[in-house]
Amino acid sequence: MFKVLKRNGNAKRGTFTTPHGTVQTPVFMNVGTLAAIKGAVSSMDLKDIGCQVELSNTYHLHLRPGDKTVYKLGGLHKFMNWDRPILTDSGGFQVFSLASMRKIKEEGVYFNSHIDGRKIFMGPEESMQIQSNLASTIAMAFDECVENPSPRDYVKRSVERTTRWLYRCKDEMARLNSMETTINKKQMLFGINQGGVYDDLRIEHAKEISKLNLDGYAIGGLAVGETHEEMYRIIEAVVPHLPEDKPIYLMGVGTPINILEGVERGVDFFDCVLPARNGRHGHVYTHSGKINLLNAKYELDGSPIEEGCECPTCKNYTKAYIRHLFKAKEMLAMRLCVLHNLYFYNKLMEDIRKALDEDKFSEFKQKTVEQFSENI
Q: How far is Cα 1 from Cα 351, in angstroms, rounded to an integer?
């Protein structure tokens, strides 16, 4: 399923074949938590801006419209009119982000809904069942994401429980994929490496989960309190202990520089809410760094966000117009900026793949990081 076409040091250029098409890697997955990109971006738009994989969230879709509703409507692909790969996060990150509203036990996690306060239980089996109902291409294993830094004793116990949960996820996924009523009987499963900022716990866990011969492996629990240097150190420690013939996914990361650093260390999949979130606030990415379109200096600027950019926004609109839309509180402002930012990220990945194909990744990375660092 995963084929490495070329290596530049630890950086990999590959392809990942799925039931919903082949993904060119390294790849950035566009985040549509509730089966939609925030900022009024449609699934048709995603194709126009070069998106290969869309990412949605198990916990949020379980709450609304409900995974059983999505199942009755034919699964997530049909529901949101997207025929390319979809990855669903397991709900494990909500174990971290909803810390004040949950209780963790061996059987799973008890939540209070952030919408109406009702009680919800999610364990490994429930997470797999929800993701099977959604019929995503790739299901993520249910895990606990801990804050960095956290006490070593707690992290060790958490990792051991996450491992036990992973075995349960694999068994339940196999059961579900064998059922006649399952929509996607070839649903893939990615395991998640945890261990906080403790190299030895991370390495031990990577070795353990590698034994399960899953479809792919993720590095979770980063970008949750540690420094960038700590994050890069953990990636360097973990990647050599994960299978070479499976894709590696760095969850929830990150900035363009984070992505370049991740690729250099052997990461194949990325996702992050930053491009869409920043776009909704008028912060847009260019090859010379990030700019804020709300600044007064753009009031009479008749140029696009970035000269030469082929995104739908830059081909048709000016900074002055988009700034006016924000000031007038028009929804179109957010849409145009999110479209640009997601195009920028997808094009960055395309350029990374091209540099890897041409054995020029090191030079490309150095030049791009310097451009960003000078202007951020």
A: 23
CATH number of 2-272: 3.20.20.105
196: number of Cβ within 10 Å: 27
Structure tokens of 206? 């990577």
| d(C-alpha 167, C-alpha 170), whole Å | 5
Q: Which parts are annotated binding residues for substrate?
A: 89-93, 143, 194, 221
281-288's contacts with Cβ under 8 Å and 24+ in sequence apart are: 282/322, 282/323, 282/326, 282/333, 282/337, 283/337, 284/337, 284/340, 284/341, 284/344, 285/256, 285/340, 285/341, 285/344, 285/345, 286/344, 287/368, 287/371, 288/371, 288/374, 288/375
pLDDT digits (tens, 9 = 90+) for 193-205: 999 999 999 999 9
Residue list for the binding site for Zn(2+): 309, 311, 314, 340
Q: How many other C-beta atoms lie within 10 A of the C-beta of residue 98?
A: 17
Could you report the per-residue pLDDT of 125-139, keeping only the tens digit for each?
999 999 999 999 999
Give pLDDT < 70 ranges for the chain: 374-376
Q: Where are the domains of the chain?
A: 2-272, 279-362
Contact partners, residue 293, CB within 8 Å, separation at least 6? 282, 283, 284, 305, 319, 322, 323, 326, 337
Q: Which residues are catalytic?
A: 89, 271
* CB neighbours of residue 213 within 10 Å: 11
Beta strands in 50-150 (DSSP E): 54-57, 86-89, 102-105, 108-112, 119-122, 138-140
Give the tokens for residue 140: 């993520």
